[in-house]
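Predict structure. Input: Endonuclease-reverse transcriptase, 114 residues.
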Amino acid sequence: MKCYRKILRIPWTARRPNQSILQELGMKERQLLKNIKQLKLKYFGHVVRHNNLEKLCLEGAVEGRRGRGRPRRRWTQDISAWLGFSVREASILAQDRDGFRSAVWEATSYKDPP
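Output follows.
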């Protein structure tokens, strides 16, 4: 919503409900996050289907000790959280393009709560 407010030049101090901003943009739901998820998942499927440097970086581990503080959110953690599979299961699923496309569609489609 912050990006949508910036597009419309609405200051953060303005007290406007999110629904009015979405109506002004002519949208029913928030599309930006959905598009980012979809592109990230599609790129993951593309990377794991090929043997290249990106796949090596994705599956590799870094030697040594990690730094202090809270661990950073990893790219693979997003993938496994959105798909509901482990990264290994998702990479096996990505070998089947049609199956992976349906899983990506399922993960990025918004469902109405019961």
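DSSP finds seven helices and no strands in the chain.
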